[in-house]
Amino acid sequence: MQGKRFGRIHVLLGKNNGKYPHGNSILIDDDTTALIDPSLTLVELHRQTVPRHIDCLFNSHYHEDHFAGNFLFPDAPLHIHALDAPALRSLDTLFDYYGMDRGATEAWKPVVVEKYHYQPREQIVELADGAVFDFGRTRMRVVHTPGHTAGHCCFFFEKEGLLFVGDWDLTWFGPVYADATSDLDATIASLHSIQALGAPTLVSFHEAGICTDNAVEVVQRYLNVIYEREQMLLDFLTLPRTLEEIVKRRIIYRKDYNVVWIDAVERNSMLLHLGKLMREGRVWWDGERYGRTTG
Ligand SMILES: [Zn+2]
What we know:
There is one protein chain. By secondary structure, the protein is of the alpha+beta class. It folds into two domains: 3-222, Metallo-beta-lactamase, Chain A; 225-292, Arc Repressor Mutant, subunit A (Orthogonal Bundle), CATH 1.10.10.10. It contains ten helices and 16 strands. The chain has helices spanning 15-18, 40-49, 64-67, 85-89, 91-98, 102-114, 184-197, 215-236, 243-249, 262-279, and strands at 3-6, 9-12, 25-29, 33-36, 56-58, 78-81, 124-127, 132-134, 139-144, 153-157, 162-166, 201-204, 210-211, 241-242, 283-285, 289-292. The protein has a seven-stranded mixed sheet, with no helix packed on it. A six-stranded mixed sheet has the order 8-9-10-11-12-13, with no helix packed on it. Helix 7 (184-197) packs antiparallel against helix 8 and helix 9 (243-249) crosses helix 10. The structure holds zinc ion. Residues 61, 63, 148, 167 line the site of zinc ion. Zinc ion binds next to loops.
């Protein structure tokens, strides 16, 4: 597995440039060893790179591509934010949090168990914003950045100037807020708080990988995708539309992207945009159709 070191912090680069379902994991090889978001790449190649024994395991949030390697370390206490922890204690709760419809849930459940090795976890340490971990020479601070999921966290290594941003992945696609636990206002606030931390190096779980130039601008460009989607939605609502028409328009996901859960995630995301626009008085709803207010 390819990687890059920052002091005792190793970024273990995922296959295919960390594109989903793969991703970039973090190994802290210090007096205390820790692993953040063990990916499918790590599952396939872990013997060469990662020690057999890991003292503690961290997940930035409850998504399947981030917990795929947890099962390799059954004795390591798993650290995850208190708001996301229930999803890793119970598969039914995980699916409540995903917020898929019944058909997608039935199709996706066996995949999460077989391909992503979901195993309910007993030994969970619940994280809170601001918690600090000292691994020996490396210190890490938990930064709660909700919106993608309610408990999504970034991990900040201040001395090394490195912020692991998890699924705030800085891609051209833009931020994802598609679960039942997602929140659009929280997404915007979290991305501003990432900018405010001013870390010179951002490491994302997916494609953008390691960003060392113009971090504030890169986050701003990523944040702007939200407003581009909002404008597309407003343009579409020049004529009143039902929610199902809005879902079919596929403002977020490509029309040719056909996985079982695609309508559910487009619907969840659009409901968040519609909720924001209605709170701002820019969109109305008559119980059936949504439309754009004039002026
Ligand atoms: Zn995610």
